[in-house]
Write a structure and sequence with these properties.
Helices cover 50% and strands 0% of the residues.
Length: 262
């Protein structure tokens, strides 16, 4: 059996050698007949997929075919074990507490109120009236509406000549009509000729009829003949009937004053 297989193999090798020598032999020279040209196969269109080319595994073994190169398997090296680095724990350095010096709290001295004993000093009536008039003048200039009205009324009784100036200012420029009316009444009660200017201004220029009426009455109580012109103008041209009547009465009073004294 072994010899038969050897002879078969030898015959196969000889047949392969003969086939290769006949295919790769040089063409004959001289009058040798030429070989017909090889018929070119039509190329397949691009969109038609060509048959796969024979690979080394499917191609028939030939004598001149090199042996396939057997590539060595890659050496798989084990991965190095990466060990974690040791955690170095550093000690936490805490700051030292700031030691502040203790503040010495000194207690405040107890301030006791002094006991003021006021001894009443005997004051004359003239001095008391002087201080009272001064207080009322200040109240007339800086107080509220109610306090200014009260001060204007009281100054008509105890103010005298000192109160004529503040009362004249209040009769002209105070924004409260009640205060102006009380100031004009106090000027008529005092009866000083120094208050004629304020009464005449109020009689001719004040927008309220009550105030103009009070100014005409005060001019009649003062009884100065210099107010006749303002009273005549008010009697003729004033729109308020009460003001015209008060101006007429004041003119009669001024006319009777030299004869009867009132």
């Amino acid at each position: 059996m072994k010899t038969a297989s050897k002879t078969i193999a030898l015959l196969a090798v000889l047949g392969l050698v003969f086939a290769t020598t006949t295919t790769f032999a040089a063409p004959r020279r001289g009058n040798a007949p030429r070989r017909p040209p090889a018929v070119q196969k039509p190329q397949a269109p691009r969109h038609v997929t060509e048959a796969p080319k024979p690979t080394v595994a499917t191609r028939r073994p030939t004598l001149h075919q090199p042996k396939p190169i057997i590539q060595p398997k890659p050496v798989v090296r084990p991965r190095p074990v990466v060990r974690p680095k040791p955690v170095i724990r550093r000690p936490v350095i805490r700051p030292r507490p700031v030691v502040r010096p203790r503040t010495i709290v000194v207690p405040r001295p107890i301030i006791r109120p002094r006991i003021v004993v006021r001894v009443p000093v005997p004051v004359s009536p003239q001095t008391a009236q002087f201080y009272e008039v001064t207080r009322l003048i200040v109240q007339l200039q800086t107080g509220s509406s109610h306090h200014r009205e009260e001060a204007a009324e009281r100054l008509g009784y105890i103010g005298g000549e000192r109160a004529v100036g503040p009362l004249s200012t209040a009769a002209i420029s105070d924004y409260d009509r009640d205060v102006r009316e009380e100031a004009l009444e106090s000027l008529g009660r005092i009866g000083s000729p120094s208050g004629i200017g304020a009464c005449m201004h109020a009689l001719l220029n004040d927008p309220f009829g009550d105030v103009r009426e009070r100014a005409a009455q005060s001019l009649g109580y003062i009884g100065d003949a210099r107010a006749n012109g303002a009273l005549l103008q008010a009697r003729r041209f004033d729109n308020d009937r009460h003001v015209r009547e008060a101006a007429d009465t004041a003119l009669e009073r001024i006319a009777r004053r030299p004869q009867y004294g009132w």
